[in-house]
Structures are given as C-alpha cells and as structure tokens.
Amino acid sequence: GRKSDSNKTRPTATRHNTGQQKIRLADSDNCATTAAIQIIQCCKLAAWLMQFCICMIVVIIISKNHQSTHNYHHHQHYYYHHHATETMTTQKKRKARSPRTKAEATREDNYTGSHYCVRCAQKKKRCVFEEDKQQCILCELEGTTCQLLGQTWLHSHASSKLGRRSACVRCAKRKKKCVYNDNDEYNFKTTCSQCNDDNVPCCVGVNFRGAGNHTTLLSGVHKTVVAENNMETLVAIVTFDTAAKVQATIDHPMNSDAKTSTQRPARVRNNFGLCLSDITLGEKSYKEIVSYGSGCGATSVGTTFNTNYLRELTDDMNSLRVKVYSILEHHQYLVPFLKPFNHLQFSINGNKGLQHEKTCQNIQTGMHCDMSYSFSDKNGIQCLPTMNSQEFNTVVAIITVGHSRIIKFERVAWEKGITGDVLETRYFILTHLSLFLLHPLDERPALRDKGSKVLSIWRHGDVRLLCNNHSCRVRCDATCHVENENIVSFSLALRCCNHSTIIDTETDSPPLSNDDRQQLQLPPLNDAQKERNINATIELQKYYQSGSKAIFDAWLLRATRKVLDEFYASRDK
After folding, report:
1. How far, in Å, CA of 208 to CA of 448, rounded?
2. Where are the beta strands (DSSP E) in 302-417?
3. Residue 6 or 560, more confident
4. Exposed, middle or buried, 243 (CB in 10 Å: 0-12/13-18/19+)?
5. Are 434 and 242 in contact (CB under 8 A)?
6. φ/ψ (deg, to 5) at 293
7. For residue range 25-34, what is the model confidence (pLDDT) as tens digits?
8. In this structure, what are the phi and psi dihedrals at residue 412, rounded to the nearest 5 degrees?
9. In this structure, what DSSP letter does residue 313 have?
C-alpha cells in the first residue's frame, strides 16, 4: 500500500514541475516577443527619423538654390544696366585683364559682394529688386540711388569702428595675446608689450571686422555724394578753370628718357597746394607751398626741377577741399583717418589728340601704392616720412568729371617688400561726379587670409578710360576710334601732405640758382639735375615750335566741350 501511495504521488509532483516549466517557457516566450516588438518599433522609428532628416536636407538645399536663383534674377538687370561703380573679383592665381567696356565691367557673375544696397542695410530693411528695375523698392520710393555694399566706401552702420587695430603681426603669427601700451584703437605708431619686452620691432595689425565677408578692401566709390551735396557747380568751376590753365611738364619716368607730359600715354598732372608762408628775398618773392610727389614719387615720375610746377590753391579749390572734408567727417569710421586736405592734384586722362594713341588701351597710371612701406632688420616694417609726402594713415578723395575710367586693385603678397604674387584682383568704375576714397589701411602690410601667415597689401593702378564701343574686347579698331573721339576724364585728388616746397612766384617752379637756393637754405642742384633742366628747356622749345602744344590745346578744347555737351547741357535743359 505504501508503495502504491508513493507511486501515486510521484506523477502528481512530476505534473506540478512540468506546469511550472511551461509557465517559465511561456513567460520567456512573452519576453522575447515583447523585445522583438520593441526592436521592430525602434527600427521603424529610426527609419522614419532617417527619412525625415533626408527630407529636411533636401528642403534646405532646394530653398538655398531657390534663394540664390531669386537673388540672381532680382539683381541680374541691375548689374547689366546699372551705370554705377560695380566691382569684380577673380579667383586666386586667375589671370585677369582690365575690362574694356561698361557691359564687360558689370558682369553679374563676377560680383562677390553683398546683395543688399547701402540704404536698406543701414535701415535694416529687406532689400528687393523688382524685374527690370535698377533700384530696389525702398530706394525707388524714397527717390534715392541704390549702391550695393562692397562697391562703396559707405558702411552699413554709421557708428562702425571699421579700421581698428588688432594683434600685431608677430603676436598673431605666434598666436600670442597682444596688449598695447596705449588705449587708442587707431594708433598704428605704437608697440605691444610682448614686442617691447623682447626688444623687437612691432608691426601693428589691422582689424577687418565690419568690412564684410567678401573682401578686405576698404576703398570704394560713392557715385551720388557730389550731387546730393549740391557740389556740381563748384566741381565744374574748379575742373574747367584748371584745365584752361594746364601746364606741360618734362618727366623722366624711372628707366625712361625725358618725355613731355602732354605727349605720353600717362595722364597729365598739375599740382596745387596750400600756401604756408610768403618769403621775400631782395626783389624776388617766393612761397612755401604744400607739395605731393616729393618723396619716392620724385623718382618714379621724375619731373625736372624747372618744370615741376606747383601753384597755390585757388579760392574755389579751398572751398572744395573744405566741403569734401566736412562731408566725410560725418562718417565716424572715417574720422580716425581724416586730416584737413591741403593739396589738390589735377589730372587729365585721354589720348591728348595723338592719333596713334588708342584710348581704351592706354594705361594712364601704372600699378603703385600712394604710401610706401619698407623693411629693415633693425626697425621692421616702416612707413618713412622721407619716402612719403602724404600724411601717414590718411584717406585720399578723388572726384571724377567726364567720361568713366576704370581702376584696378591687386592684392599682392608682401615679404620685406612686394613679392609680385597676385592673390586677388578687383575693379572699380569711376563715373562722372563720383567720389572715390583710397583707404590708407589697404596699403598697409597685414594678415588678410584666415590661417595664413602671409602678409599682403592692396596696390592700385592700370587706370584706363572705358571704351564706348560695346563690341571692343581685345584691341581697338576703327569703330573704337570713332566712338572714343575726343573723350576725356578729369580727376581732382585731395590729400593731406606733410612735405612743402619753396616756389618762385614768377615761374611756379623751385628756384634754380644755387645762390638763391643757398640763401633759402636749400641744397644746391647737382650736375645731373642741371643737365636735366637744360634738356627740359630744349624739349619745351621743341614742344612749342613743332605745333604739338597747339594740337594738344585744340584736343583739350574739343574734349572739354564734349564733356559739357554730354554731362551738363542735358541737365541745364
């Protein structure tokens, strides 16, 4: 009986254990199913998120493409038909030549500046150009002229501190903290504490923040400032009165023979300065007048002493220089680089009536810098006053009258001097009554490329008149000669200079007699200078007797009348 009882209980216990195992297996199956479901759901969620991200990326790309296309169509007509001061840039190391016509110079696909005009940027308004409109909606309603940022020296913020100094070149290359010994953010004639402690030369760096992401060039053109300030009449009086009294000079350009200024491709220059003092020496009278080109320009231009004419500023010229200065000083970011103008250089750009000279191929001014920087192991990078007659760190203001001309800017590498490696190229069109500002910091050696230790500067030149023949591309042809007949571009360049020259009031040139020069405490002329003066006198006699002066005078009269007919007669009507 016990045996049977024990046999009866075992199956029961066995069945009980089997039930627990089934329950455990069922629980494990449920967990596995739940985990699988969760994995599937996670995969679905991940797939959905991936699709969502892909869709968002596609939307962003499409919107950007749409925006760029929208901007292009809004500005396409503006670029192709706007007779403004458009600029162009070229890629690094890309070969570029100066544009020959307005249509070529205003190609939209080469412009890399902002698509906002100055007024909209200043007012922080949306800038929209309608189809077939040369002005944005806001400027059109206000009756003002649009000027795109990146073309003009105007800044989007009136209180901008553009042009402040930054870390010196040495500290920037070493990525060290740079602390200057003074608090003037625009003082570039100082030394940082690091360079001072190490007793090495210090070259103050330039802060380009605020110039825009498209360029480090601070110079630019304002095409309406003369008209907006009612200076048309004053500018016309100064221009045409000066043109009527222009004087030919005999120049010895570097590595060239003597040439008459009115018969060579380069522009004709006449200088006028503020009179500092009157000097009487016996029966002779002299004036000490502010001069320009008496630094390194004395070698590059090489005007002989007896034709180096320098006249006192007229009353109208004085009114013009004061007026321009008062306009510029309203812009806070220009004030640190402004000093009262005391010199005016008048220039005539054109073929001067010479039939063999081709107008749109002639280079009126070669590539150069107005301010010359030098390097020495002892003193580092310097701007020597003896080599620069222009005041350090001051702007140059140039007003254009007549036909448009184009000026080229090249950013070149600088290492103990210009290396010749062109890093960037830009062009500006100087139109009738435009005001061009040459900013001094553009010519200062500075670090302009992020992450690079290469110094660079901007130089300018290759100035030429724009060809009126729209099909001109490489060389002038017969059509160009007809279209460009008697065109001329006058320029009035205002500067602040720190050099002066004593001038004989009878000849408007420096005294030539060594006795007079000794009494005036001037160095005597050497034999080479005396020989150049003799040759210059002979060249001037030939110039008068051969009829060359009459040819130039007749061309200048026709060219002046053409400017009056094309740019002033229609306005008077």
Report:
1. 8
2. 310-312, 343-349, 374-376, 380-382, 396-402, 405-414
3. 560
4. buried
5. no
6. 90, 10
7. 455 556 666 7
8. -120, 150
9. P
